[in-house]
Amino acid sequence: MPAPLPVPDAPGSWPGLGHVPQLALRPLSFLSSLNDLGDLVRIRLGRKPVYVATHPDLIRSMLVTDGHAFTRGEGHAKALSFIGPILVATTGEPHRRQRRMMQPCFHRRRIDSYITGMTAAALDTADSWSADDVVDVLPAMTELATAAITKSLFFSKLGEEAEVELRKVGSAILQVARMSAVAPGIYRRLPTAGNRALPPARALIERTIADYRAEGQDHGDMLSMLLRTTDADGVGLTDEEIRDEIMGLAITGIGGPAAVASWAFHELGQNPEMERRLHEEIDTVLDGRTPGHQDIARLTYTQQIVKEALRKYPGWVGMRHTREAVRLGGYELPAGSEILYSSYALHNDARWYPEPDRFDPDRWASKNSEGKLRKGAWAPFAAGVYKCIGDGFTEVEVAVVLAVIGSRWRLRPVPGRTVRAVHQATHVVPGRLRMIAEPRSVHREGHSSRRAPELSR
Ligand code: HEM
Questions:
Q1: Quick one: which atom of ligand 1 is closest to the CA of 152?
Q2: DSSP per-residue codes, 149-215
Q3: Does any domain span residue 349?
Q4: CATH number of the domain that residue 145 is part of
Q5: Around Cβ 139, how many Cβ atoms within 10 Å?
Q6: How many folded domains does the chain comprise?
Q7: Ligand 1: residues whose CB is within 6 Å?
Q8: Which end of the chain is less congested by CB atoms within 10 angstroms, N or C?
Q9: How many angstroms does the Cα of residue 168 sit away from the middle of ligand 1?
Q10: 367: pLDDT confidence band, cut at 50, 70 and 90?
Q11: Which range among 163-172, 241-250, 447-456 shows the weakest confidence by mean pLDDT?
């Protein structure tokens, strides 16, 4: 075997702090700058060395082909440990068991049945705007995404109270997760809104689980599925496990779709031709109806926009940890090493995506466009055993949001405002994105009434 390659050190390490200032203040440009230094680069967090994989081959090897030699980094586990040992926080055998049990909630047919709730959530948002309102887009999309996941969790009237409560306290609990990633011990002891909201939210979910069990009906929602799912030995989830997984989904299921939908509206606002094509597709396919699952497949340009938003604005950081000494590409990593990768830096690297700054949904126009990419260069949802379980849910949700809102409103940029990409938890979000709501006259003339979908409750 050839001698291991030397790992270059990133410049600009501060005495005692390493690259913490760069990661805290400008992580997106800092991590992107490492692409030019090598396929694997060493940075320092304080005195601790951390490796950054910048090349798709290495990222794929770490996540998929040599995935057995790596485990999840500590970030997620730390951030969500206050909920319990949920899917996103576990590793190894417990993770495998939980993954198998959660998977049915995210089967394609199940996702189709969540479209009604996603549509209702998008209609509520669309109906809350008036002409010329200046919309604070990210909070609006966060509220919408919270409603979409909570409606998917509970279809039955029995879940109505839990849904309302989770929507009310969702952002406060999300804040607990964000702060717990930074300072878990201290933050959990503070009397913040999120910490105060947790016990009553938990109690309400427990009551809902008991009500669903007593009633015994399959409502087709996530909770019904979680009550029925079993592991390889036929053992189901306990009520406590279900409660914690529900809390976990209500947290992990919000930030990503909200960021992607916000970016899509921002980009549409910058590009009238793209917006025209979107509107033409929505008007042709839906003809004033709200979308059903057969429509999603036909909204091809809409889906391309979603995909391009996931390309240009994926999460900025993911972590893995070596279980054993391992060769990654030509590099040697000792056991216990931390390896970081940035989907944002990867997706904005001109070697894999020509003209990466250009938001171009036509990159995804051919059916095989993903197949033509360098393997490993597409990683908005990570890959391998810990890959995001909500990938299909996200793609459908954001397409529904664009279709429902786009058939009623155009969001115009506020003149003179610059929108910057900033990091929020692991996501990249548009900072201070405000847009002006303008009613779409085509829709108003042709289809003035709101045809709300019927939820099963
Ligand atoms: C734009 C949207 C989203 C992005 C970019 C995203 C990103 C990710 C990434 C990168 C991971 C892997 C974390 C790791 O490597 O440890 C992950 C895991 C996960 N995500 Fe997402 N996510 C999104 C939406 C969602 C949604 C909508 C849900 C739930 C409805 C969800 C639930 C989860 C869960 C439960 C895991 C843990 C999976 C496992 O460990 O088996 N995510 N997500």
A1: 30
A2: HHHHH--SGGGHHHHHHHHHHHHHHHHHHHHHHH-HHHHHHS--HHHHHHHHHHHHHHHHHHHHHHH
A3: no
A4: 1.10.630.10
A5: 13
A6: 1
A7: 72, 76, 87-88, 99, 149, 249, 252-253, 256-257, 260, 314-315, 318, 380-382, 386, 388-390, 393-394
A8: N
A9: 22
A10: confident
A11: 447-456
Nearest residue to 154 (alpha-carbon basis) of 195, 107, 101, 207: 207
271 lies in some domain: no
CA-proximal residue: ligand 1, atom 6 (nearest): 381
The pLDDT, as a whole number, for residue 182 is 63
Residue 105 lies in a domain: yes
* Cα gap 346→378, rounded to integer Å: 8
CA of 138 to the centre of ligand 1 (A): 19
Type of residue found at 247: M
Half-sphere exposure of 24 (CA within 13 A, CB side): 10
Q: Please report whether residue 381 resides in a domain.
A: no
Residue 289 has pLDDT above 60, yes or no: yes
How far apart are the CA of 255 and the centre of ligand 1, in A? 10
Helices (H), 190-299: 193-215, 222-228, 239-252, 255-270, 272-286, 293-298
Domain that holds residue 435: 85-263+412-457
Share of the chain above pLDDT 70, in %: 93
Select from 146, 149, 141 the least CA-distant residue to 169.
Answer: 146
Ligand 1: nearest atom to the Cα of 314: 5
Sign of CA dihedral 348, 349, 351, 355: positive
**H or E segment and range at residue 338:** strand 338-341
Q: What's the rounded Cα separation, in Å, for the pair 143 and 174?
A: 12
Q: Say whether pTM exceeds 0.85.
A: yes
361-365 mean pLDDT: 96
The CA 261 to ligand 1 mean position distance, Å, reads: 16
Residue to probe by mutation, ligand 1, list 223, 252, 344, most atoms within 8 Å of CB: 252
Q: Whose CA is nearest to atom 27 of ligand 1?
A: 253
Which atom of ligand 1 is found nearest the CA of 86?
Answer: 35
DSSP 61: I
Neighbouring CB atoms inside 10 A of 107's CB total 12
d(CA 352, CA 378): 9
Between the CA of 388 and the centroid of ligand 1 the distance, in Å, is 4
- Please give the average per-residue pLDDT across 292-301, as a whole number: 96
How do residues 202-254 score in pLDDT, each as one tens digit?
Answer: 999 999 999 999 999 999 999 999 999 999 999 999 999 999 999 999 989 99
* Span from the CA of 4 to the centroid of ligand 1 (angstroms): 33
Dist. CA 287 → ligand 1 center (Å): 33
